[in-house]
Amino acid sequence: MFDLAVSVLTLPVLVPMDINIDPNSDGLPGIAQLRTIVGAIMTVGLILSVLALIVSAIVWGFGANSSNPHLAGRGKIGVLVSCGAAVICGASVTLINFFWNVGQQV
To answer: Per the UniProt record, which residue ranges are transmembrane (predicted)?
Structure first.
């Protein structure tokens, strides 16, 4: 009984081998086209954010000038949401790279 307990405690610990995998930009066909499409979508997102900012500012102005607090509040929220969408579209590559680097250090 004692030999079994000692043998269980002395089992070697298996350490996984060092695995190093980096993103491969040549692995699949169409990666360059996919990057072009993603860049175009980012541009469309930024343009739509500017359009939403303009519309929201107009709604905010109409709401404030017509003494309609609900409309003014909706315009303010629209301005904040459109600015947040523009920040996310503009900083998406930087955010992904930051979290990729954080994930590599884990």
So the answer is: 37-65, 77-100
Token readout for 9 is 């405690």
Q: How far is CA 97 from CA 34, 93, 101, 103, in A?
A: 18, 6, 6, 10
pLDDT at 39 exceeding the cut of 80:
yes
Query: Where does the chain have alpha helices with state H?
Result: 2-9, 31-65, 69-105
Interhelix angle 31-65/69-105, nearest 10 degrees: 150
Instruction: List Cα–Cα distances, 39 to 24, 44, 92, 99, in angstroms.
Output: 19, 9, 11, 19
- Would you tell me how many other CB atoms lie within 10 Å of the CB of residue 51? 11
Q: What is the pTM of this model?
A: 0.70
For residues 71 and 64, give the distance between their C-alpha atoms in angstroms, rounded to a whole number.
8
